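Troubleshooting log. The previous structure file for this entry was overwritten by mistake, so regenerating from the original sequence record. Sequence copied from the archived sheet and checked twice against the printout by T.R.
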Amino acid sequence: MKWSAVILAGGFSKRFGRNKGLIELAGKPLILHVLERTANVVDEVVVAVSSDAQRRLFAPLLPDKVDVAIDGRERQSPLVGAAAGFENAQGECSMLLPCDTPFVSDRVVQLLQDQCINRNAVIPRWPNGYVEPFQAAYRTESALRAAESALKENKFDMRSMVLHMSHVRYVSTLVLQQIDPDLSTLFNINTPEDLKRAESICSSRNPSVR
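Regenerated output below.
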């Protein structure tokens, strides 16, 4: 089964004053951290951006084999970016990832991929019921249809897409903790304080350990 990684990179951070994926951590942009950590568990990578201007910013940083998809819709949202990524993905299944999760675990990705057999989606879920649709595995065609259905209803959130999907499997974060005890795979950078924490994690880790 061929797997694509759809990395959402269309967001502009007001706190940082630039595109999130371009923020540097340990000397390289966040998006490259995500790319490097997933390179061995997918067959292709699609980076979804919101404009041609963003494409021009990201393109020089990305390997030649990485495809850049522009969402093109007037209204921007993560769901719009996801739809553009799914539309351009060639894999039967796609791993959806944000560009600001520099510690995404390839082992967690593999676990979600393995659970995707006979399912349209495999989504992490916290004990309180909160789900993580931005670090989840999807059957590409089913996800695209669901995303388009939600957008036609003028709904722009990922939850609306998931509600249009059948055969969804939820995996408890307690299971993920057996692989990633600190659940750093789900840690995303939203604030300068988050970036400082990520820098501290980087400095304390052996770079070869995932």
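Helices lie at 30-38, 52-58, 78-88, 106-114, 140-152, 158-163, 173-176, 192-204. Archived copy saved in two places this time.
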